[in-house]
Design a protein that fits this description.
Elements: E1 2-7, E2 21-26, E3 29-35, H1 39-43, E4 54-56, H2 62-65, H3 68-79, E5 85-89, H4 91-98, H5 103-109, E6 110-114, E7 119-123, E8 126-132, E9 140-145, E10 151-154, H6 162-168, E11 173-177, H7 195-204, E12 209-213, H8 221-231, E13 236-239, E14 245-247
Parallel strand pairs: 3-4, 4-5, 5-6, 10-11, 11-12, 12-13
Antiparallel strand pairs: 1-2, 1-14, 2-3, 7-8, 8-9, 9-10
Helix pairs in contact: 7-8
The structure holds zinc ion (2 copies).
Length: 259
């Protein structure tokens, strides 16, 4: 399984970085997680929008949704793929998109699958498990298993919660939001995570590799990396940059089990 970073900025674009978007692929199957503002420009570094098989949009916030509109228009006017695009998302995402794309166009080109808590789903070679996260709008984190058993977990946007533990436990790679650098009691608990907490979740869950993302400018990805490494010095930790590529491979050690 490959994880390709199309956008790594948190909440709004940053200098040289687009908002959240991640292409996950195995063989020819291409699954796009979130499509934040500016990310479509980076998507072209890896593929073209007509080759994307399915998109998961974890929640309705603009920094995870905005460039779906461009992707949709590319497929509608530039490439005309024969098959519908599978879009797994929340009702709030559908509502926001219907303000930007006509319902009939959306229905003719997109097959919508609504996410819910504790949903398991098969998309191409991938098994997905979604859990409801701690965020002000309906939001789902994901655990994705490839055909070789490799497992990727993605926090989406979330504050500290049990669901993140369950999703990430034992996974080969945790892609975790790190909006802030260090935890602070004044931060709302149902909004975002800090990099030190991301490190703590990775350590407690026995994650193989932690990749920090969604660092909100002017917070610095390098500072986030230092904070996470201080919490989990034995774990490989990287801070995502746009156009990075990570290989997600199964480890030899025993892992948690995807339900
Ligand atoms: Zn966000
Ligand atoms: Zn959000």
């Amino acid at each position: 399984m490959l994880l390709e970073i199309c956008g790594s900025a948190g909440s709004y674009p940053a200098p040289g970085r687009a908002c959240s978007s991640y292409l996950v692929r195995e063989d020819t199957y291409q699954l796009l997680l979130d499509v934040g503002n500016g990310s479509m420009a980076n998507l072209f570094a890896f593929t073209t929008p007509d080759l994307v098989d399915a998109v998961v949009i974890t929640h309705e916030h603009t920094d995870h949704l905005a460039d779906f509109v461009g992707l949709f228009h590319y497929r509608r006017y530039a490439s005309h793929p024969q098959r519908k695009l599978v879009l797994c998302c929340t009702p709030g995402v559908v509502r926001n998109l219907s303000q930007l794309i006509s319902d009939s166009a959306l229905e003719s080109l997109v097959e919508v699958v609504l996410l819910e808590d504790d949903l398991t789903l098969r998309l191409g070679p991938f098994n997905l498990w979604s859990r409801s996260m701690a965020h002000p709008v309906e939001t789902y984190g994901l655990r994705i298993r490839g055909s070789d058993g490799a497992e990727l977990s993605y926090s989406a946007d979330t504050g500290p919660c049990e669901a993140l533990e369950a999703l990430s436990s034992g996974t080969d790679l945790l892609l975790c939001e790190s909006t802030w650098i260090s935890d602070n009691p004044h931060y709302p608990r149902d909004l975002h995570l800090s990099a030190d907490l991301a490190g703590a979740y990775a350590r407690l869950g026995g994650v193989g590799h932690l990749v920090l993302t969604h660092v909100a400018y002017p917070n610095s990805p390098a500072e986030a990396l230092r904070a996470a490494r201080a919490e989990a010095p034995m774990i490989r930790i990287d801070s995502a940059s746009d156009r990075d590529v990570y290989v997600v491979g199964p480890r030899v050690e025993p892992k948690g089990i995807l339900r």
